[in-house]
Amino acid sequence: MVKAIMDNQLKEFKRRRNVVNCHHLVLVPCPLQGHMSPMLHLAKLLHSKGFSITIIVSSNELNPPLNPSHYPEFLFQSININEDGTNNISYNSFGGDVMLYLLVLNNKCGTPLRDCLAKLQSNVSCFGPVSCVVYDAVMYFSAAIADELEIPRIVLRTSSASTFLALSLLRKGATLNTKERDQPELPLADFPLIRAKDMPVFDTSDQKAAEEVLARIDHGTKTASAVIWNSLQCLEKFMFSKVEEKILAPLYPICPRLHYINGHNFGPNNSFESLLHTEDHGCMSWLDSQKPNAVVYVSTGSIVRISKSELAEMAWGLANSDQPFLWVVRPGLVNGSNGLELLPKGFLEITRKRGKVVQWAPQWRVLGHRSVGGFWTHNGWNSTIESVNEGVPMICWPRIGDQRVNARIVTSVWKVGIELEEKNLKRWKVESAITKLMVHEEGKEIRRRAEELKEKVRVSLGQGGSSCEFLTKLVDFIKLV
What we know:
GO terms for molecular function: quercetin 3-O-glucosyltransferase activity; quercetin 7-O-glucosyltransferase activity. By secondary structure, the chain is of the alpha/beta class. It has helices at about 1-15, 35-50, 100-120, 140-150, 160-170, 180, 205-220, 235-245, 255-265, 280-290, 310-320, 345-350, 365, 380-390, 405-415, 425-440, 440-460, 465-480; strands spanning about 25-30, 50-55, 75-80, 130-135, 155, 225-230, 250-255, 295-300, 325-330, 355-360, 370-375, 395, 415-420.
């Protein structure tokens, strides 16, 4: 069905458009929710500036699959990465090993992308020649192919500048000194904003694979013509000044995700949140019935996995907090389960008058609702910046990848959240964290700072703000390459 839609789109573009003289951009997203969403937002922004957009579909990872009919302004090109002519490769089949998944995905995509770009280059009557390849940094295979075909390339970094700096330390094999090793709470000498315990962590069965992936991502970023960042200068000004010491190419911190969300109204076919699971929009009417700033929204994102015991501790901590809550318990949150059947016996009955459990929620709408006063989050970067965008203070419970770095920035640099110990989760710790944020004076002060940071983001994203200025500069840059 998806292929048929793509074919029909191609015929329609051939019929109605002559884009020979247009700037044609090929975007290569990573087929994971947290990566796909900012790339699609970037595609929307660039298309609004007059660029023709082709999006490469490298895997049907999303379930339900990405529906091209929702984005009629783009052309979609599916590349077959398997010997049987399919493009199916499931992250779930790698048991949560994101590094091994990325290695296999990149190894499979090189030749198919080369063939696809060569076809696009030759079919100039329909598409126009490819002006530039814009790819997610983790899809590093794109760099070699673009260079081989002598097509300029630009990288999109979907994570924070802080994470880039932390990974740079990790990459160069920086060893902790004895003091840092013995006291992981101390700031790192090479990056004082974070501690040893805040460094990125990747659960992988193949350490060499992880090292190769990180090295290729780093090389692709540092050798690109330019780097677009899913962040804002007002959030990471100091960090970007340090990044500029490591990357000679121009940096464009436009934060396409927030830039687009704040500048456009979403129609029913433009909700990027529905990429992975079916959203439960009924939770919005439930939120309407709650008092302002009273609800704790709980979500650990699209790929984090927790244990059955952690699920139970989360449940009873929420129950004991006596605060209204909206909790996302997605399928696969506990490995091999739809999550809901593992909730403790009696939990739903006890909390039914003040709690709601759903399998997926329209997060950007939830965080913007007047009743939501706190966000218990895993601190994926998208979730973090969405919370900042709405002025919602956070309870930070990082788990994998860059989440520890993000949580540290939230709690100690921006000071708009509190830290929940990552390991050995206990219900009394959950109850204490929720009470501190939602009831105590400390929570009120955190909320005040969150509102101030929200205003800084608004200014940055508004007309004449740094995000708009960087977007204008990016458009001019692409037209010149």
